[in-house]
Amino acid sequence: MMKKYFVLAACICCLSMVKAQTTSIIKFDEVQRILSSKNDTTYVLNFWATWCMPCVKEYPAFQTLATRHKNEKVKVIMLSMDFASEYEKTLVPYIKAHPIDGRVCLLDELDYNAWINKIDAKWDGAIPVTLIINGNRHIRSFFGHDFTTESLEQTFTQTIKQ
Amino acid sequence: MKKITKTQSVLGIVAVAVGFVLMSFAPSAAGYKIGDSVADFSLKNTVDGKAVSMASFPKAKGYIVMFTCNHCPFAKKYEQRIMDLDKKYAALGYPVIAISPNDPSIEPEDSYDELGKHAKEKKYTFPYAFDETQQVAAAFGATKTPHAFIVNKENGKLVLKYMGAIDDNTDSAEKATKHYVADAVDALIGGKAVAVTETKSVGCGVKWKKS
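^ inputs. structure came back:
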């Protein structure tokens, strides 16, 4: 029975990988679900926006990380701070041009003060920032700076080794 | 003798390492806290080329010190609201002093000339100062644009009363329900305590000079 669920979960996982180029608009409760998940998937959450220069500069590092680890229990989720009112002209074309082996969501929660501290108390709100979590293994590491392809891979490897 | 040298060199390395750690946290870890006494500054106003400081407004009861800039989409979203704040509150004793803290070699749109050009085009009714050394932004602990700080004159001192977001809806002024800056200034005008003294908001990180 358990096995069946695993196969099903794996299928859903693969399916979402294939559909990597699609994006959606989400609310914070969905982020909250990821934060409190108790499975053995490592989530790499990047808070960014298409208008943010350092974010766009580090975006390829996340593309590389996602592709390198796409056959592992790793999910790269790019949470965009673009405005929902401009979704079609900002995030949608960007993701079409820059597909990723992961999920891209527009987090439509403009009352930032209500949720920033739930990501990390150290976060002042400037982007980009990254959170690496694994519920099963009690890993939760916050990085308030941008990455290069090398530094992201290195940080990821060190973090999940904990 | 050899041993001592070794210990010394290890200590040296540790000291250097600690130094690096402290340095890398310098811009964000520092900054005033609510209730702190704030030092006045003197910056060049990009609108007229003259020096501007809080003391340039001797009749003011306090100040809305707004770290903002030309290039940042969040700052652009808030531009009209910042202009409206000055229109309303300058007359009530709380003028806006806008300051751009960014290094123009990273963001050319935020150069002294571009800031001045933009302020004139938009007919800013307040100074738009250029924090070339970034010391004022570091002193306040500004980390992004826009980042608002409200200073109140109390017994001859400049006291920090609020820091953070302008309101709770960057995308739409009409849809905002919590007007943090306006509420704080209203409280000060009414002689009341500021209810919400600190908020967080997403924004463009200050473009610090690469040392």
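Residues 30 and 52 of chain B are 23 Å apart (CA to CA). Residues 2-29 of chain B form the longest helix (28 residues).
thumbs up if we can close this ticket
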